[in-house]
Protein backbone atom coordinates (compact mmCIF):
# COMPACT_ATOMS: atom_id res chain seq x y z
CA UNK A 1 0.00 0.00 0.00
CA UNK A 2 0.98 3.66 -0.20
CA UNK A 3 1.74 5.49 3.05
CA UNK A 4 3.22 8.81 4.09
CA UNK A 5 6.53 8.04 5.83
CA UNK A 6 8.85 10.15 7.97
CA UNK A 7 12.46 10.19 6.79
CA UNK A 8 13.89 13.06 8.85
CA UNK A 9 13.30 16.70 9.67
CA UNK A 10 11.16 18.28 6.90
CA UNK A 11 11.48 15.09 4.84
CA UNK A 12 8.28 13.06 4.43
CA UNK A 13 7.58 10.84 1.41
CA UNK A 14 4.82 8.64 0.03
CA UNK A 15 6.37 5.15 0.00
CA UNK A 16 5.18 1.70 -0.96
CA UNK A 17 5.06 -0.38 2.22
CA UNK A 18 3.62 -3.79 3.17
CA UNK A 19 -0.14 -3.91 3.90
CA UNK A 20 -1.00 -4.26 7.60
CA UNK A 21 -2.54 -7.50 8.85
CA UNK A 22 -4.38 -8.69 11.97
CA UNK A 23 -1.84 -9.31 14.78
CA UNK A 24 -4.07 -9.71 17.85
CA UNK A 25 -7.64 -11.03 18.13
CA UNK A 26 -9.08 -7.63 19.06
CA UNK A 27 -7.54 -5.89 15.98
CA UNK A 28 -9.31 -4.78 12.87
CA UNK A 29 -8.02 -3.42 9.57
CA UNK A 30 -9.61 -0.35 8.01
CA UNK A 31 -9.35 1.04 4.51
CA UNK A 32 -8.77 4.74 5.05
CA UNK A 33 -11.27 7.04 3.36
CA UNK A 34 -10.09 10.35 4.88
CA UNK A 35 -7.21 11.49 7.09
CA UNK A 36 -5.95 14.89 8.20
CA UNK A 37 -2.65 16.58 9.02
CA UNK A 38 -2.54 17.85 12.61
CA UNK A 39 -0.51 20.57 14.33
CA UNK A 40 0.92 17.68 16.36
CA UNK A 41 2.29 16.18 13.13
CA UNK A 42 4.25 19.39 12.62
CA UNK A 43 6.17 18.70 15.86
CA UNK A 44 7.35 15.44 14.21
CA UNK A 45 7.95 17.17 10.87
CA UNK A 46 10.04 19.82 12.63
CA UNK A 47 12.06 17.14 14.43
CA UNK A 48 11.02 18.09 17.98
CA UNK A 49 9.72 14.69 19.09
CA UNK A 50 12.47 12.14 19.77
CA UNK A 51 12.40 8.44 18.80
CA UNK A 52 11.07 8.79 15.24
CA UNK A 53 12.71 6.36 12.82
CA UNK A 54 13.08 6.67 9.04
CA UNK A 55 10.18 4.86 7.39
CA UNK A 56 7.69 5.42 10.24
CA UNK A 57 4.14 5.83 8.87
CA UNK A 58 2.63 9.11 10.08
CA UNK A 59 -0.92 10.22 10.84
CA UNK A 60 -3.28 9.91 13.78
CA UNK A 61 -6.45 11.60 12.50
CA UNK A 62 -8.18 9.11 10.24
CA UNK A 63 -11.36 7.21 9.45
CA UNK A 64 -12.38 4.50 7.05
CA UNK A 65 -14.22 1.31 6.29
CA UNK A 66 -13.64 -1.92 8.21
CA UNK A 67 -12.26 -4.56 5.82
CA UNK A 68 -11.11 -7.26 8.26
CA UNK A 69 -12.02 -8.03 11.88
CA UNK A 70 -10.05 -10.18 14.36
CA UNK A 71 -11.82 -13.11 16.06
CA UNK A 72 -11.82 -11.36 19.45
CA UNK A 73 -13.87 -8.40 18.25
CA UNK A 74 -17.61 -8.93 18.22
CA UNK A 75 -18.52 -5.23 18.07
CA UNK A 76 -17.40 -4.36 14.53
CA UNK A 77 -18.22 -5.99 11.22
CA UNK A 78 -16.78 -5.72 7.74
CA UNK A 79 -18.32 -2.74 5.96
CA UNK A 80 -18.78 -0.58 9.10
CA UNK A 81 -17.72 3.05 8.66
CA UNK A 82 -15.63 4.13 11.65
CA UNK A 83 -13.76 7.13 12.98
CA UNK A 84 -10.67 6.15 14.92
CA UNK A 85 -9.37 7.88 18.10
CA UNK A 86 -5.67 8.84 17.98
CA UNK A 87 -5.18 7.35 21.45
CA UNK A 88 -4.82 3.55 21.70
CA UNK A 89 -6.45 2.19 24.87
CA UNK A 90 -7.16 -1.32 26.14
CA UNK A 91 -10.44 -0.51 27.90
CA UNK A 92 -9.60 -2.83 30.80
CA UNK A 93 -6.77 -1.37 32.89
CA UNK A 94 -7.01 0.85 36.02
CA UNK A 95 -6.80 4.04 33.93
CA UNK A 96 -9.25 2.98 31.21
CA UNK A 97 -11.63 2.11 34.07
CA UNK A 98 -11.46 5.77 35.10
CA UNK A 99 -12.00 6.84 31.47
CA UNK A 100 -8.46 8.25 31.46
CA UNK A 101 -7.82 6.53 28.15
CA UNK A 102 -4.66 8.46 27.21
CA UNK A 103 -3.10 7.06 30.39
CA UNK A 104 -3.80 3.43 29.37
CA UNK A 105 -1.24 1.11 30.94
CA UNK A 106 -1.40 -1.63 28.30
CA UNK A 107 -1.20 -0.04 24.87
CA UNK A 108 2.49 0.90 24.86
CA UNK A 109 4.54 -2.30 24.44
CA UNK A 110 7.29 -3.09 26.94
CA UNK A 111 10.09 -2.59 24.43
CA UNK A 112 9.12 1.08 23.86
CA UNK A 113 7.42 2.12 27.08
CA UNK A 114 10.69 2.50 29.05
CA UNK A 115 11.44 5.71 27.16
CA UNK A 116 8.42 7.51 28.59
CA UNK A 117 9.09 5.97 32.01
CA UNK A 118 12.47 7.70 31.99
CA UNK A 119 11.21 10.96 30.48
CA UNK A 120 7.93 11.32 32.41
CA UNK A 121 8.07 8.93 35.36
CA UNK A 122 5.18 6.88 33.97
CA UNK A 123 4.38 4.85 30.91
CA UNK A 124 2.35 6.70 28.30
CA UNK A 125 -0.41 5.15 26.23
CA UNK A 126 0.22 4.13 22.65
CA UNK A 127 -0.64 6.70 19.98
CA UNK A 128 -0.97 6.18 16.24
CA UNK A 129 1.87 7.48 14.09
CA UNK A 130 3.59 9.36 16.87
CA UNK A 131 7.14 8.07 17.49
CA UNK A 132 8.51 5.02 19.25
CA UNK A 133 8.01 6.61 22.66
CA UNK A 134 4.29 6.03 22.16
CA UNK A 135 4.55 2.51 20.85
CA UNK A 136 5.88 2.97 17.32
CA UNK A 137 2.43 2.23 15.88
CA UNK A 138 1.93 2.79 12.15
CA UNK A 139 -0.26 5.84 11.51
CA UNK A 140 -3.23 6.40 9.24
CA UNK A 141 -1.92 8.69 6.50
CA UNK A 142 -1.99 5.57 4.39
CA UNK A 143 -4.34 3.37 2.40
CA UNK A 144 -4.91 0.93 5.29
CA UNK A 145 -4.31 0.84 9.04
CA UNK A 146 -4.32 -1.79 11.75
CA UNK A 147 -6.38 -0.78 14.79
CA UNK A 148 -5.40 -2.53 18.06
CA UNK A 149 -8.17 -2.87 20.71
CA UNK A 150 -10.62 -2.08 17.96
CA UNK A 151 -13.53 -3.30 20.09
CA UNK A 152 -12.97 -0.21 22.30
CA UNK A 153 -11.65 2.64 20.14
CA UNK A 154 -13.29 3.23 16.76
CA UNK A 155 -16.81 4.66 16.76
CA UNK A 156 -19.26 3.49 14.10
CA UNK A 157 -20.90 6.30 12.14
CA UNK A 158 -24.26 5.85 10.42
CA UNK A 159 -24.16 5.28 6.66
CA UNK A 160 -24.48 8.36 4.49
CA UNK A 161 -22.78 10.85 6.82
CA UNK A 162 -20.09 12.73 4.84
CA UNK A 163 -16.57 11.93 6.11
CA UNK A 164 -15.70 15.59 6.62
CA UNK A 165 -18.46 16.05 9.18
CA UNK A 166 -17.11 13.37 11.50
CA UNK A 167 -13.37 13.06 10.69
CA UNK A 168 -12.37 15.48 13.44
CA UNK A 169 -13.82 13.20 16.11
CA UNK A 170 -10.50 11.37 15.72
CA UNK A 171 -8.68 14.10 17.64
CA UNK A 172 -9.26 17.82 17.44
CA UNK A 173 -12.96 18.08 18.32
CA UNK A 174 -12.58 15.95 21.49
CA UNK A 175 -9.34 17.85 22.17
CA UNK A 176 -11.04 21.24 21.95
CA UNK A 177 -13.95 19.85 23.99
CA UNK A 178 -11.74 18.48 26.78
CA UNK A 179 -9.72 21.71 26.78
CA UNK A 180 -12.93 23.68 27.40
CA UNK A 181 -14.21 21.14 29.94
CA UNK A 182 -10.95 21.58 31.86
CA UNK A 183 -11.92 25.25 32.30
CA UNK A 184 -15.07 24.24 34.27
CA UNK A 185 -16.92 27.06 32.53
CA UNK A 186 -19.61 28.85 34.56
CA UNK A 187 -22.34 31.16 33.22
CA UNK A 188 -20.90 34.60 32.49
CA UNK A 189 -17.33 33.32 32.05
CA UNK A 190 -14.79 34.79 29.68
CA UNK A 191 -12.34 32.29 28.18
CA UNK A 192 -9.13 33.41 26.42
CA UNK A 193 -7.69 31.03 23.85
CA UNK A 194 -4.14 31.27 22.41
CA UNK A 195 -3.78 29.82 18.90
CA UNK A 196 -6.48 29.86 16.20
CA UNK A 197 -5.28 26.71 14.48
CA UNK A 198 -7.66 23.76 14.17
CA UNK A 199 -7.44 22.96 17.90
CA UNK A 200 -8.01 26.59 18.87
CA UNK A 201 -11.10 26.82 16.65
CA UNK A 202 -12.47 23.58 18.14
CA UNK A 203 -11.84 25.00 21.62
CA UNK A 204 -13.77 28.17 20.68
CA UNK A 205 -16.75 26.13 19.44
CA UNK A 206 -16.61 23.94 22.57
CA UNK A 207 -16.30 26.84 25.02
CA UNK A 208 -19.48 28.42 23.63
CA UNK A 209 -21.30 25.07 23.61
CA UNK A 210 -20.32 24.67 27.27
CA UNK A 211 -21.78 28.04 28.18
CA UNK A 212 -18.99 30.63 27.93
CA UNK A 213 -20.35 34.14 27.60
CA UNK A 214 -17.27 35.51 25.84
CA UNK A 215 -14.31 33.93 24.08
CA UNK A 216 -11.24 36.00 23.23
CA UNK A 217 -8.94 34.35 20.68
CA UNK A 218 -5.29 35.26 20.05
CA UNK A 219 -3.12 34.63 16.97
CA UNK A 220 -1.44 36.71 14.27
CA UNK A 221 -2.66 35.13 11.02
CA UNK A 222 -5.52 37.25 9.57
CA UNK A 223 -7.36 34.27 8.03
CA UNK A 224 -7.20 32.23 11.20
CA UNK A 225 -8.35 35.23 13.26
CA UNK A 226 -11.21 35.74 10.79
CA UNK A 227 -12.25 32.11 11.25
CA UNK A 228 -12.19 32.60 15.03
CA UNK A 229 -14.37 35.68 14.63
CA UNK A 230 -16.84 33.78 12.45
CA UNK A 231 -17.11 31.31 15.31
CA UNK A 232 -18.14 34.09 17.67
CA UNK A 233 -14.82 35.00 19.30
CA UNK A 234 -13.47 38.49 19.89
CA UNK A 235 -9.95 38.46 18.48
CA UNK A 236 -6.53 39.88 19.32
CA UNK A 237 -3.58 40.00 16.92
CA UNK A 238 -0.45 39.63 19.05
CA UNK A 239 1.56 41.56 16.46
CA UNK A 240 -0.68 44.57 17.02
CA UNK A 241 -1.41 44.62 20.77
CA UNK A 242 0.21 43.71 24.06
CA UNK A 243 -1.81 40.62 24.85
CA UNK A 244 -1.97 40.75 28.64
CA UNK A 245 -2.76 44.48 28.71
CA UNK A 246 -5.48 44.02 26.07
CA UNK A 247 -7.03 41.13 28.01
CA UNK A 248 -7.05 43.23 31.19
CA UNK A 249 -8.77 46.09 29.35
CA UNK A 250 -11.41 43.72 27.99
CA UNK A 251 -12.18 42.15 31.38
CA UNK A 252 -12.54 45.19 33.65
CA UNK A 253 -8.94 44.81 34.84
CA UNK A 254 -9.54 41.35 36.29
CA UNK A 255 -8.29 38.97 33.58
CA UNK A 256 -10.13 36.12 31.85
CA UNK A 257 -11.76 33.45 34.07
CA UNK A 258 -9.89 30.76 32.21
CA UNK A 259 -7.17 30.49 29.59
CA UNK A 260 -6.46 27.76 27.04
CA UNK A 261 -3.04 27.21 25.44
CA UNK A 262 -3.79 25.80 21.97
CA UNK A 263 -0.25 26.51 20.76
CA UNK A 264 2.12 24.25 22.67
CA UNK A 265 5.87 23.89 22.40
CA UNK A 266 6.47 25.84 19.17
CA UNK A 267 5.25 29.33 20.13
CA UNK A 268 6.03 32.08 17.62
CA UNK A 269 6.75 35.72 18.36
CA UNK A 270 9.61 38.04 19.19
CA UNK A 271 9.02 38.52 22.90
CA UNK A 272 12.35 38.36 24.76
CA UNK A 273 11.53 35.10 26.56
CA UNK A 274 10.59 33.41 23.28
CA UNK A 275 13.75 34.60 21.52
CA UNK A 276 15.85 33.13 24.35
CA UNK A 277 13.91 29.83 24.19
CA UNK A 278 14.37 29.71 20.43
CA UNK A 279 18.12 30.28 20.68
CA UNK A 280 18.41 27.63 23.40
CA UNK A 281 16.38 25.10 21.43
CA UNK A 282 18.53 25.64 18.35
CA UNK A 283 21.65 24.61 20.26
CA UNK A 284 19.75 21.77 21.96
CA UNK A 285 19.79 23.42 25.41
CA UNK A 286 15.99 23.46 25.53
CA UNK A 287 13.25 21.25 24.16
CA UNK A 288 10.15 23.45 24.43
CA UNK A 289 9.28 27.12 23.93
CA UNK A 290 6.58 27.82 26.53
CA UNK A 291 6.05 31.54 25.85
CA UNK A 292 2.28 31.15 25.44
CA UNK A 293 1.96 29.23 28.67
CA UNK A 294 3.84 31.95 30.56
CA UNK A 295 1.67 34.65 29.00
CA UNK A 296 -1.54 32.76 29.75
CA UNK A 297 -0.59 32.17 33.40
CA UNK A 298 0.22 35.86 33.85
CA UNK A 299 -3.04 36.97 32.18
CA UNK A 300 -5.61 34.70 33.84
CA UNK A 301 -7.56 36.10 36.79
CA UNK A 302 -6.82 35.11 40.38
CA UNK A 303 -8.39 31.74 41.13
CA UNK A 304 -8.67 31.04 37.39
CA UNK A 305 -8.23 27.87 35.33
CA UNK A 306 -5.34 27.12 32.98
CA UNK A 307 -6.07 24.47 30.37
CA UNK A 308 -3.21 23.14 28.23
CA UNK A 309 -4.15 21.02 25.21
CA UNK A 310 -1.05 22.31 23.36
CA UNK A 311 1.65 19.65 23.38
CA UNK A 312 4.80 19.98 25.50
CA UNK A 313 7.51 17.34 25.38
CA UNK A 314 10.27 18.08 27.85
CA UNK A 315 11.36 20.55 30.51
CA UNK A 316 10.72 24.30 30.54
CA UNK A 317 12.40 27.13 32.38
CA UNK A 318 11.36 30.63 33.53
CA UNK A 319 8.04 29.03 34.43
CA UNK A 320 5.94 31.41 36.60
CA UNK A 321 5.26 28.96 39.40
CA UNK A 322 5.03 31.91 41.81
CA UNK A 323 2.08 33.33 39.86
CA UNK A 324 0.40 29.93 39.80
CA UNK A 325 0.73 29.51 43.56
CA UNK A 326 0.04 33.09 44.62
CA UNK A 327 -2.98 33.49 42.30
CA UNK A 328 -4.36 30.09 43.29
CA UNK A 329 -4.62 28.75 39.75
CA UNK A 330 -5.75 25.31 38.64
CA UNK A 331 -3.86 23.68 35.76
CA UNK A 332 -5.37 20.84 33.74
CA UNK A 333 -3.82 19.23 30.69
CA UNK A 334 -3.18 15.94 28.91
CA UNK A 335 -3.39 14.01 25.72
CA UNK A 336 -7.12 13.82 25.09
CA UNK A 337 -9.15 10.92 26.51
CA UNK A 338 -10.81 10.68 23.09
CA UNK A 339 -12.80 7.47 23.67
CA UNK A 340 -14.60 9.08 26.64
CA UNK A 341 -16.12 11.83 24.51
CA UNK A 342 -16.95 10.07 21.23
CA UNK A 343 -20.61 9.00 21.74
CA UNK A 344 -21.64 12.42 23.09
CA UNK A 345 -19.81 14.41 20.41
CA UNK A 346 -20.98 12.20 17.52
CA UNK A 347 -24.54 12.75 18.73
CA UNK A 348 -24.03 16.52 18.72
CA UNK A 349 -22.76 16.42 15.12
CA UNK A 350 -25.62 14.20 13.96
CA UNK A 351 -28.16 16.49 15.65
CA UNK A 352 -26.64 19.47 13.79
CA UNK A 353 -25.63 21.25 17.02
CA UNK A 354 -22.12 21.85 15.69
CA UNK A 355 -20.43 22.04 12.27
CA UNK A 356 -16.72 21.27 12.11
CA UNK A 357 -16.11 21.57 8.37
CA UNK A 358 -15.41 25.32 8.31
CA UNK A 359 -11.76 24.74 9.27
CA UNK A 360 -10.95 22.70 6.13
CA UNK A 361 -8.96 24.78 3.65
CA UNK A 362 -7.44 22.08 1.42
CA UNK A 363 -8.24 18.57 0.22
CA UNK A 364 -5.36 16.67 -1.42
CA UNK A 365 -4.81 13.14 -2.70
CA UNK A 366 -2.46 11.15 -0.43
CA UNK A 367 0.26 11.34 -3.11
CA UNK A 368 0.47 15.09 -2.51
CA UNK A 369 0.83 14.76 1.27
CA UNK A 370 4.46 16.04 1.26
CA UNK A 371 3.21 19.28 -0.31
CA UNK A 372 0.41 19.40 2.24
CA UNK A 373 2.94 19.24 5.08
CA UNK A 374 5.11 21.93 3.51
CA UNK A 375 2.22 24.36 3.12
CA UNK A 376 0.56 23.56 6.46
CA UNK A 377 3.93 24.40 8.04
CA UNK A 378 4.94 27.43 5.94
CA UNK A 379 1.64 28.98 4.80
CA UNK A 380 -0.41 28.64 7.96
CA UNK A 381 -2.55 31.68 7.24
CA UNK A 382 -4.20 30.12 4.17
CA UNK A 383 -3.70 26.46 5.05
CA UNK A 384 -5.90 26.05 8.12
CA UNK A 385 -6.54 22.29 7.83
CA UNK A 386 -5.52 19.73 5.23
CA UNK A 387 -7.59 16.62 4.54
CA UNK A 388 -5.81 13.82 2.64
CA UNK A 389 -7.76 11.40 0.48
CA UNK A 390 -6.02 8.05 -0.10
CA UNK A 391 -8.69 6.86 -2.59
N1 LIG B 1 -3.71 17.42 23.89
C1 LIG B 1 -3.96 16.73 22.79
O1 LIG B 1 -4.41 15.59 22.85
C2 LIG B 1 -3.72 17.37 21.46
C3 LIG B 1 -4.40 16.92 20.34
C4 LIG B 1 -4.22 17.60 19.11
C5 LIG B 1 -3.34 18.66 19.04
N2 LIG B 1 -2.67 19.05 20.15
C6 LIG B 1 -1.76 20.20 20.13
O2 LIG B 1 -2.50 21.41 20.05
C7 LIG B 1 -1.66 22.43 19.50
C8 LIG B 1 -2.39 23.14 18.38
O3 LIG B 1 -2.67 22.26 17.31
P1 LIG B 1 -3.15 22.85 15.90
O4 LIG B 1 -3.42 21.68 15.01
O5 LIG B 1 -4.19 23.86 16.10
O6 LIG B 1 -1.76 23.53 15.46
P2 LIG B 1 -1.36 24.73 14.46
O7 LIG B 1 0.12 24.69 14.36
O8 LIG B 1 -2.15 24.63 13.18
O9 LIG B 1 -1.84 26.06 15.19
C9 LIG B 1 -1.11 26.70 16.17
C10 LIG B 1 -1.49 28.18 16.12
O10 LIG B 1 -0.85 28.85 17.20
C11 LIG B 1 -0.53 30.15 16.76
N3 LIG B 1 0.50 30.76 17.62
C12 LIG B 1 1.85 30.56 17.59
N4 LIG B 1 2.47 31.34 18.49
C13 LIG B 1 1.49 32.05 19.11
C14 LIG B 1 1.50 33.04 20.12
N5 LIG B 1 2.66 33.45 20.66
N6 LIG B 1 0.31 33.58 20.53
C15 LIG B 1 -0.86 33.16 19.95
N7 LIG B 1 -0.92 32.22 18.98
C16 LIG B 1 0.23 31.68 18.56
C17 LIG B 1 -0.03 29.94 15.34
O11 LIG B 1 -0.02 31.13 14.60
C18 LIG B 1 -1.04 28.89 14.83
O12 LIG B 1 -2.14 29.49 14.18
C19 LIG B 1 -0.39 21.72 19.05
O13 LIG B 1 0.60 21.85 20.05
C20 LIG B 1 -0.82 20.29 18.95
O14 LIG B 1 0.27 19.40 19.10
C21 LIG B 1 -2.87 18.44 21.34
ZN1 LIG C 1 -4.00 15.51 15.94
ZN1 LIG D 1 -6.07 0.59 29.36
Small ligands present: nicotinamide-adenine-dinucleotide, zinc ion
Instruction: Report strand %.
Output: 15-25%
| Inertia-based shape | globular
Our count of helices gives: 13
First-to-last CA distance: 11 Å
Q: Summarize the biggest pleated sheet.
A: 7 strands, mixed
CATH superfamily of the largest domain: Medium-chain alcohol dehydrogenases, catalytic domain
Q: Approximately how much helix is present in the residues?
A: 25-40%
The count of β-strands is: 18
- Count of domain modules: 2
Mean pLDDT over all positions: 96
Give a summary of the structure in a few sentences.
With 391 residues, the chain is of the alpha/beta class.
Describe this structure in words.
There is one protein chain. By secondary structure, the protein is an alpha/beta fold. The protein has two domains: about 1-170 and about 335-390, Medium-chain alcohol dehydrogenases, catalytic domain (Quinone Oxidoreductase, Chain A, domain 1, Alpha-Beta Complex), CATH 3.90.180; about 175-335, 3-Layer(aba) Sandwich (Rossmann fold), CATH 3.40.50.720. Helices cover about 30% and strands about 20% of the residues. It has 13 helices and 18 strands. The strands form four sheets. Strands 3, 5, 6, 9, 10, 17 and 18 form a seven-stranded mixed sheet that branches. α13 links the parallel β17 (about 360-365) and β18. It is globular. About 50% of the residues are buried. The model has no long low-confidence stretch (mean pLDDT about 95). The structure holds nicotinamide-adenine-dinucleotide and zinc ion (ZN) (2 copies). One zinc ion binds next to loops. Nicotinamide-adenine-dinucleotide (NAD) binds next to α1, α5, α6, β12 and α10.
Amino acid sequence: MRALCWHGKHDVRVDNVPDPGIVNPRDCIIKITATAICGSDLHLYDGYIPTMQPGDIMGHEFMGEVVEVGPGNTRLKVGDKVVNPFVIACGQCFFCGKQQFSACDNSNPAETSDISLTAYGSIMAGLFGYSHMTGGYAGGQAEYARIPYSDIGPIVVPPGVPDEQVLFLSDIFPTGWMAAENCEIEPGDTVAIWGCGPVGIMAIKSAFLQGAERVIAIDHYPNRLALAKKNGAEVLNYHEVKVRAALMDMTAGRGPDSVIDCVGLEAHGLSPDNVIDLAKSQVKLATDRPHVLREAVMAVRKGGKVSIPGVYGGFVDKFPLGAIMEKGLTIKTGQTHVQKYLPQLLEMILEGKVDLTDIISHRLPLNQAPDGYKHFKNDQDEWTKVVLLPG
